[in-house]
Amino acid sequence: MNVFLLDDEPLAVKRLARLLEATGRVRIAGSATDPADALGRIPHVAPPIDALFLDIEMPGLNGFQFLEQLNADPLVVFTTAYDRYALRAFEVNSIDYLLKPVETEALDRALGKLERMLGGVEPRADLRALVDEMTRALGHARTDFLTRVPSRVGDRIEFVDLHTVTHFYAKDKLTYAATAQRHHVIDQTVSDLEQRLDGRRFVRIHRSTLVNLDHVRELYTWFNGRLMVRLKDGKTELPVARERAAELRERLGL
To answer: What are the φ and ψ backbone dihedral angles of 16, each rounded to 5 degrees?
Structure first.
């Protein structure tokens, strides 16, 4: 079975590829972290891919928008961090899904379903019906997450877009939103922010720190087994509290 992997998180792609290779049941024909790149590559993979492992939430194009533009018709297994309420739409369809972080048992289930479809034992799913149903289900999902935060500068208030924020941290009774340009003082506490931010992007790694997963470059072990996060700027390093390490690894697909 030829498969292609598309997920905007490189660590998630690597972990899924490792799990798939360990099964010995598939050939990974390619992978991508950029939906636009995958749109151009997938139709030209030879031999054609049988199945696509596709993340739902990606910048630029989400998984459903991607499928609408894809000039190919593979079977699809969605990989997602959405909760099970939203995923009920999948339970009445033949297409499978994998809830992140992907577990071996769930992957075996999905591969079995793909093999039955490819062998004609089960009918191919109605992808359009699933997309429509999933869109309706996600309409009930929370949509009030912050997209930017205010920062007071003298008698002015600046608004900081969250995609530019690498992390939030508390120091000397103040809370800061760190960006590449500067560190902005904001009024909310780290605990308040944890409740108002999209938990699929921002993870609390310490009582005083929230990190934006989109800006994480790598994890490494420091003294006494302490886990550290290094950001994509190559210089910012953030300690991870021991009680937060397992959640961070899980959110990064490790």
So the answer is: -65, -40
The position carrying tokens 């290094």 is 230
| Burial zone of 6 (CB within 10 Å; 0-12 exposed, 13-18 middle, 19+ buried) | buried
CA atoms within 13 A on the CB side of 69: 14
Distance (Å, whole) CA 65 – CA 49 = 19
**For residue 219, pLDDT beyond 80:** yes
Residue 130 forms beta bridges with which residues?
none
Reference 183, options 170, 200, 196; nearest CA is 170
Residues 4-38: tens digit of each pLDDT: 999 988 888 999 999 999 999 999 999 999 999 99
Looking up tokens 């005083």 gives 208
pLDDT digits (tens, 9 = 90+) for 125-166: 766 666 666 666 555 555 568 889 999 888 899 999 999 999
> Alpha carbon of 59 to those of 37, 63, 102: distances in Å?
13, 10, 21
Token pair of 2, please?
């030829």
**Residues in CB range of 165: below 8 A, 6 or more apart:** 149, 177, 178, 179, 212
